[in-house]
Structures are given as C-alpha cells and as structure tokens.
Amino acid sequence: MKEYQTITEVSGPLVYVETDEPIGYDEIVEIETPNGDVKRGQVLESSDGFVAIQVFEGTEGVGKDASVRFLGETLKMPVTEDLLGRVLDGSGNPIDGGPDIVPDDRVDIVGEAINPHAREYPEEFIQTGVSGIDGMNTLVRGQKLPIFSGSGLPHSDLALQIARQASVPEEEAETDDDDEGSEFAVVFGAMGITAEEANEFMDDFERTGALERSVVFMNLADDPAVERTVTPRMALTTAEYLAFEKDYHVLVILTDMTNYCEALRQIGAAREEVPGRRGYPGYMYTDLAQLYERAGRIEGKEGSVTQIPILTMPGDDDTHPIPDLTGYITEGQIMMNRDLNSQGVTPPVNVLPSLSRLMDDGIGEGLTRADHGDVSDQLYAAYAEGEELRDLVNIVGREALSERDNRYLDFADRFEAEFIDQGFKTNRDIEETLDLGWELLSMFPKTELNRVDEDLIEDHYVEDVADEATAD
C-alpha cells in the first residue's frame, strides 16, 4: 500500500492525484488530512501518472498537504443474515446504535450480471396489499416495477405501505417445498431524503415491526452526493446475498432515483464531461441498467430479488430523461396522479397509464384466482370509458348523456372512491381486491361485461348490486 502526497487539485467532490504506478479503476482510497481525519474515496478515472478520486464524505478539509493511500481493492459490502433489523448509512455503516456487524463475507458492490441462460422467468405473485397494484398492475417475483411520482405526492407513504405489507400469499407459502424459500425480506434504500422523511420512515418501521425483516440504508439530503451513487449498490449487494445465499425472497425499494441521477449529473459536471440530454451524463442509461438489471431469479436458487424503484418526475414530465430511460429498462410502471391526490384518494395510483408487463404470467388459477385477468381487463375498460365521458360532461352536461353513459360515470367515481382509495393503513389481500372488483362490475348489466368469461359471471356476479343500480 503506497502513500502519496501529490494532490494537484480539489474540485467539488473530486480530488486529482499524480501517481507513478498504475492504479485500478474503482479502487478504494483513504485520504488523511493533516489533522488526522480520514476520508474514503474511490478511483473514478485512471491514466498514466494521473488519478481522479471521488470522495464519499466530501472534500472539506482536504488540501494539497493531505496524504492519499490506495488500498488495492474495490468497495465491498460486509454481508450477513444478521443485517436484518439493522439501519445503515449510505455507505453501509451501522447508525442504529446496535452492535458491530460481524460479516460472513465481504462482497464487491458492483455485483455480477446474471447469466441470461440461468435466469428463471418471473411468474410468482407478490401481494402488496394495494388494490391498484395487486388487482390492476400485479407485481411478480423477480420483476423490476418502478413507481413514477411527482414532487409533493405521497410516494414515501406508498413505499412504506408496500414495505410493511408486501408478502407471499398464504396458500403459496404453504405449498412451498422449502420453508426457507418462502421467507420474505425487504431492503430499503433511501437516497437524498430529508431528516424529517428519515424519521418518518424509521418511526413507521419500528412501530409496525417491519424493521425485523428489513435492512435499511439511509442517505440524507445533507450527506455527500457521491455517497448517493454507492447507496443503491450497497442495498442490491445485500439483497443478492440474502436472496441467492440465504434463500430469501427480497423486495428492494429504492427511493428516490431522481436524487441518484442528480448525483450522477453533479459528478459529471465536476469532471467537466460533455453533458447529454438536459445536462445528465450520456452514460446514465448504462448506469441505471446496471442497477435495475440486478433484479431477477436464478435457476436452481430458491430466493429472488424484486425491485420497486421510486422516482419523482421533474415537472411531472414523463418524457424527462430519468423516467424515460427507466421505462426502457424496467417492466412497466406505476403512475401516481396529482388530480387523484388533490381529491384525497390514497394511494393516488392512476391505473390507466400504469402497466405491469409481467402481470399475465403472475396471475390466474394457482397463483391468484382464475377470474383475476378478466376482472382486471373489464375494470380497466369500464374506468377508461368513464374517464372519456367525464371530458364529454364538461362540454354537454350530464343531463345530455344516456342512462348507460351515466352508469359508467357513476362507476368511475365509485372505482376511485372504493377500489383505488383505501388509505395507507389498509392491507387488502387479493381475494378482497377481486371481490370488490366484482361488486363494482355488478353495477352493469351482464351484457356489458364483454371481457369476462360467462362461467365467471355466473360464479361471481352480485345480483343485489345490479338490482340497486337498476333501481337508481
């Protein structure tokens, strides 16, 4: 381990050092200031006689008189099953006052790509307890399904609700050949959040007991931006260890990916890189793909890694580079809606632009219920028609519409008020969600249910509701 005192420049989070030997990319560095403070960093760029280092703790106090030591290894995450129930900072250091972590292993945070031939297709249902997701945009094990939100919307509350409620359905757990294989864990990675949000997260985790099966990584808004680029990799490395070494089904929630991308832009500006679209680095697509593609299942392994990244769209613009690139890489999106939020609908999930590309493989008989697909399709079609009629009402008034059209308008109102709006404390299982869907669909005559199999209509149609709707 060679030590240098050849710092030539300090620029934002970056330190530039002259060297007389080759230095490896991503190598970990210790920088010691004259007053004895030691900061950690990582090699960002290496060439003959010159190295650029990004400093995790910020460069305050680092001058040209500081000493630089190259440790000869990349950044590693100490992993153990005992991490469950612990709270760590964005660099993986415990901040909960608990005992020191004694790791079983130290794993490179960059991870290894899953061999496509060894990937198992995601097709087992994960129950979040949120009807707008479970019923209409189902999440399956091994999927990456982001939540697209906006500034001021309650995506943090939705993240907490999913972390608290996510589970494997009881029937599936009972039929699992390996009891350990049905164990469920949550890895929660928060990036660039405020201290108030952090306190809210921790209060909820501790109050509900969800912390016992969770590993929480906290990077606050006043922590160095460089640390933000490490946090999701620490979280995913922990998730991969629990999933593929300890056979857990791990749900990874990452919030807020917009803060992560802003950190990439800040570092790119400090390096004076040629910016891409809207000032973000041209390699942001590749960087995001390295994170999102770490979700999945591996043949022969009991565990799985499922991702729910959460991002706030600047200006609610879904064509912004961050949601745009995320949409290319992931398998759908859950869209939160500002109008629904202003009406008091919680969680304000807009099912029409939302999508789960793997939903069809994770629902049906033996997974959720035989009528799930048909109910979802019919609810979607009816709500879409009701939304279109709302625009027409603004022009011609409700009195000008037919009885059939008015029924679709009533359905749209009830769908939002009863199916989507359930509050952040209510945990609905898939049976409750589908039964509620049938109750709403029974507002229509059976002849209107053209997307549902006739046998299913006979089994689930609620005649009392139909009679009330006719009487109205």
Automatic annotation (TrEMBL):
<dbReference type="InterPro" id="IPR005724">
    <property type="entry name" value="ATPase_A1-cplx_bsu"/>
</dbReference>
<dbReference type="GO" id="GO:0005886">
    <property type="term" value="C:plasma membrane"/>
</dbReference>
<keyword id="KW-1003">Cell membrane</keyword>
<comment type="similarity">
    <text>Belongs to the ATPase alpha/beta chains family.</text>
</comment>
<dbReference type="Pfam" id="PF22919">
    <property type="entry name" value="ATP-synt_VA_C"/>
</dbReference>
<protein>
    <recommendedName>
        <fullName>A-type ATP synthase subunit B</fullName>
    </recommendedName>
</protein>
<keyword id="KW-0813">Transport</keyword>
<dbReference type="InterPro" id="IPR004100">
    <property type="entry name" value="ATPase_F1/V1/A1_a/bsu_N"/>
</dbReference>
<feature type="domain" description="ATPase F1/V1/A1 complex alpha/beta subunit nucleotide-binding">
    <location>
        <begin position="129"/>
        <end position="356"/>
    </location>
</feature>
<dbReference type="InterPro" id="IPR000194">
    <property type="entry name" value="ATPase_F1/V1/A1_a/bsu_nucl-bd"/>
</dbReference>
<dbReference type="GO" id="GO:0033178">
    <property type="term" value="C:proton-transporting two-sector ATPase complex, catalytic domain"/>
</dbReference>
<feature type="domain" description="ATPase F1/V1/A1 complex alpha/beta subunit N-terminal">
    <location>
        <begin position="7"/>
        <end position="72"/>
    </location>
</feature>
<dbReference type="Pfam" id="PF02874">
    <property type="entry name" value="ATP-synt_ab_N"/>
</dbReference>
<dbReference type="GO" id="GO:0046933">
    <property type="term" value="F:proton-transporting ATP synthase activity, rotational mechanism"/>
</dbReference>
<feature type="domain" description="ATP synthase A/B type C-terminal">
    <location>
        <begin position="361"/>
        <end position="459"/>
    </location>
</feature>
<keyword id="KW-0375">Hydrogen ion transport</keyword>
<dbReference type="GO" id="GO:0005524">
    <property type="term" value="F:ATP binding"/>
</dbReference>
<comment type="subunit">
    <text>Has multiple subunits with at least A(3), B(3), C, D, E, F, H, I and proteolipid K(x).</text>
</comment>
<dbReference type="InterPro" id="IPR020003">
    <property type="entry name" value="ATPase_a/bsu_AS"/>
</dbReference>
<keyword id="KW-0066">ATP synthesis</keyword>
<comment type="function">
    <text>Component of the A-type ATP synthase that produces ATP from ADP in the presence of a proton gradient across the membrane. The B chain is a regulatory subunit.</text>
</comment>
<dbReference type="InterPro" id="IPR022879">
    <property type="entry name" value="V-ATPase_su_B/beta"/>
</dbReference>
<dbReference type="GO" id="GO:0042777">
    <property type="term" value="P:proton motive force-driven plasma membrane ATP synthesis"/>
</dbReference>
<dbReference type="Pfam" id="PF00006">
    <property type="entry name" value="ATP-synt_ab"/>
</dbReference>
<keyword id="KW-0406">Ion transport</keyword>
<dbReference type="InterPro" id="IPR055190">
    <property type="entry name" value="ATP-synt_VA_C"/>
</dbReference>
<keyword id="KW-0472">Membrane</keyword>
<dbReference type="InterPro" id="IPR027417">
    <property type="entry name" value="P-loop_NTPase"/>
</dbReference>
